[in-house]
Amino acid sequence: MITLEGHSLTLEDVKHVLYDQEKVQASKESWECVSKSRQAVENVVNEGKTVYGINTGFGKMSDVLIEKGDVEELQLNLIRSHACGVGEPFPEIVSRAMVLLRANALLKGYSGVRKQLIEKLLVLLNEHVHPVVPQQGSLGASGDLAPLSHLALVLIGEGEVFYKGERMPTMKAFGTVGLTPITLTAKEGLALINGTQAMTAVGVVSYLEAEKLALQTEATASITMEGLRGIIDAFDEDIHFARGYPEQVDVAERMRRYLDGSNLITRQGEIRVQDAYSLRCIPQVHGATWQTLNYVKSKLEIEINAATDNPLIFEGGQKIISGGNFHGQPIALAMDFLGIAVAELANISERRIERLVNPQLNDLPAFLSAKPGLESGAMIMQYSAASLVSENKTLAHPASVDSIPSSANQEDHVSMGTIAARHAMQIIANTRRVVAIEMICALQASEFRGVQHMAPRTQRIYRKGREVVQSITKDRAFSKDIESVALWMKQGNWDSILHPVSKEKQFI
């Protein structure tokens, strides 16, 4: 059970809730904070004070005062009018993350919502009722208004949800799990949608996938090293300590561990003096990606515990301040950076694929074909990798450098952070397929060299890989193989491969 209180949620906690179906609860202390901030909102309404979002219009209409009897209709109208998302829905895992992060933010006690509203969010998580949220339509300030409005629709019994693998009207799922809709009261609609939880949810899922993919890319590159009889000296720790980047040092160390005991790797001067950059510079290039991942992780771990709606309530209601914490610029920049960094993993992977299949660059059968000439082997797999790499380059154009004014120019600078996060997620999916192609080619090249000569760890990966994709003994439609390996990389349990308990136990 993960306990939420708005301040200490970690990416590891999020991972358990998203992928291990861990249940959630709120801390006693957080409920006390929620109660105090809610009382402040009710005082504003009862005393007739003018406070943005509680008894005023929104955006450019913030100067319009709303009568006390209309505050509930104000919140309902807000949710319905702002539910303008379009396009395909976010993956269900992202929708689940959005609900988790929204609940955690509201539990900080700065938002003025009732306990009942947050309890509904927690029930959605624990019962696995996930809102259907269209991917497109957010500017990333005033937060993710359109996506989060679709989340809020579910709380009032409208919209659609995913439940037990089926997309259905919200009330159908509510009837199954025994939930009833909630009537939004003062400020609650605004508190639900004025935040960065859509872009941050995509960012968290993308980061977790990117972290796993980066490790898998090193494992794959190690097999490529064996298939091409690469030079191990380039991973000597003295080289990497001499430069000083810890992430580079770590990549080199992991590469040495993968290749420990291999009879296929070579020493400088044994076959050639130096390898091409795509082999020799693996620690430098992959290490730079890890630097970016660390940066992105630090920003996400702040944002998943951030109060990002407006206005915020402090000092038991003595201070209610309008600000701009909903602005997604920190996450927008981080997501652009993440997309660029992962795209580089694909770039260098595709160059290793070329070295594996090009007979002018190696001494292997042309295109790893069993019958070169009669059969094309892996020739067109490299084409697919090149296409994905090229697509990544267009997706890596930073979204955060763009801004379009909205709400009659009241909201005159926006982050486009959700676009950045969506592009990063697509880049990760593309890169996974590129690395899957490298894995297929590397397995085949090492097989030509002799599996018995591989390192113990890479032999283990080889055996696991051959359960997913067969050897290339003749031409076949390789599309299914690529997708099968990519799915194995995304959903398979790689812990024993990527994180062995000990050197003695890793091959049991």
Give a quick summary of the entry.
The protein is built from 19 helices and nine strands.
Describe this protein's structure.
The protein is mainly α. The protein folds into two domains: 2-195, Orthogonal Bundle (Fumarase C, Chain B, domain 1); 204-402 and 413-498, Fumarase C, Chain A, domain 2 (Up-down Bundle), CATH 1.20.200. The chain contains 19 helices and nine strands. Strands 4-6-7 form a three-stranded antiparallel sheet. β8 (312-314) and β9 (319-321) form a beta hairpin. α3 crosses α6 and α9 (197-227) crosses α11. The chain starts with a strand and ends in a 10-residue tail after the last helix. 50% of the residues are buried. Mean pLDDT is 94; it is low at 501-508.
